[in-house]
From TrEMBL:
Sequence positions bearing N6-(pyridoxal phosphate)lysine: K196
Name this polypeptide is given: Phosphoserine aminotransferase
EC number(s) recorded for this UniProt protein: 2.6.1.52
Sequence positions that bind L-glutamate: R42
GO molecular function, one term: O-phospho-L-serine:2-oxoglutarate aminotransferase activity
Enzyme class: transferase
Cytoplasm among keywords: yes
Organism ancestry: Bacteria, Bacillati, Bacillota, Bacilli, Bacillales
Length: 361
């Protein structure tokens, strides 16, 4: 079977063993004579998948018992406003650390429900850096602080989340969830769309500290209340059963691979391979992110001219590479190397980049 060299930023590749398993079970899941997507979400067969996925996510990410894990819909984008609806109080503000377009969008969506304030921003450097922040020194009375752990478009990432100050902390982890362990001490709510490291598009993973959830606005429609979804184990309404099934298979795959320790090692090796290629290219390729802010998930780079970039992207596309163009808002090139991208595909990309350089330098 031919699998593309898939460097898409999301939806991205899904591990081949996951797709194979889904294919094998597609028409007859556990002798039921039906596909998972054809089962009732109230059936015991489906419930087994649902609760196993929750349990394996908890195990893999060492999620403490003080947190609930939820399966919601509406993508990370709905979380931008749902967090504000639940937690932004009338007499307080939500504090944003701006590290890219997604944090800007999160702030904008929250503004429909209350006031926001920028605590720090790296916009001046065209988001090539992660700003310094000391959350303990924020004196303003905030309902919460919002961070983006990995900036998919600009290719930067917090190496470690900042230590928590006096305010609850909400983190968008859409593009680095399941790539490394999380220090839960510094987080009260984390959310992530599934379509990068956690499966196919359609389910949003939410990790929420129960004591924080209790502080939420209680006059909301139940469908946008975290507490309502938590009280029904994310079965308040029909969940995206097919997407949750794929997420469950992804957690099986992570466990088979040796858990997050192994995943993290592979992520570091893959990213190093591409950053070394950029750094050793004598300026032929230049990285967008400052070295200390470089993302292990999205490697952003430019070539000498837009014309050369176009040529690079065209040659790459002709050779079967998918998704190497930078986000339409910034241009250039971007290789997203999520968990399901095999090391061999990154090696192939490295070799292609070196060959292209040797031809055009
Ligand atoms: N946050 C980040 C960091 C993202 O990368 C994305 C999607 N690329 C989103 C939010 C938006 O996610 P969705 O399209 O699932 O709403």
């Amino acid at each position: 079977m031919t699998r593309a060299y898939n460097f898409n930023a999301g939806p991205g590749p899904i591990p081949t063993p996951v797709l194979e398993k889904a294919k094998q079970e597609m028409f007859n899941f556990e002798q039921s004579g039906a596909a998972v997507m054809e089962l009732s979400h109230r059936s015991s067969l489906y419930e087994k998948i649902h609760f196993q996925a929750l349990k394996q996510l908890r195990d893999i990410l060492s999620v403490p018992e003080e947190f609930d894990i939820l399966f919601l819909q509406g993508g990370a984008t709905l979380q931008f406003s749902m967090t504000a609806q639940n937690f932004l109080e009338e007499d307080k503000k939500a504090g944003f650390v701006l590290t890219g377009s997604w944090s800007e969008k999160a702030k904008k969506e929250a503004e429909a429900f209350g006031e926001t304030v920028v605590l720090a921003s790296s916009k001046d450097s065209n988001y090539a850096a992660i700003p310094e922040v000391d959350l303990a020194s924020v004196e303003e009375s905030l309902s919460y602080v919002h961070l983006t752990s990995n900036n998919t478009i600009f290719g930067t990432q917090w190496k470690e989340l900042p230590a928590k100050g006096n305010h609850p902390v909400i983190v968008d982890m859409s593009s680095d969830i399941l790539s490394k362990q999380i220090n839960w001490k510094n987080v009260d709510l984390a959310y992530a769309g599934s379509q990068k490291n956690a499966g196919m598009a359609g389910v949003t993973l939410v990790f929420i500290r129960k004591s924080f959830m209790e502080q939420a606005n209680t006059s909301l429609p139940p469908s946008i209340s975290y507490a309502q979804h938590a009280s029904k184990d994310s079965l308040y309404h029909t969940p995206p059963t097919g997407a949750i099934y794929i997420t469950k298979l992804v957690t099986d795959w992570i466990l088979d691979m040796g858990g997050l320790a192994e995943i993290e090692k592979r992520a570091e090796a893959k990213a190093k391979m591409l950053y070394d290629t950029i750094d050793q290219s004598e300026g032929f390729y230049t990285g967008h992110a400052e070295p200390e802010a470089r993302s292990l998930m999205n490697v952003t780079f430019r070539l000498r001219s837009e014309k050369l970039e176009e040529q690079f992207l065209q040659e790459a596309a002709n050779a079967g590479y998918m998704g190497l163009n930078g986000h339409r808002s910034v241009g250039g090139c971007r290789a997203s190397i999520y968990n399901a991208v095999p090391l061999e595909h990154v090696e192939a990309l490295r070799d292609m980049m070196i060959a292209f350089k040797n031809k055009h330098k």
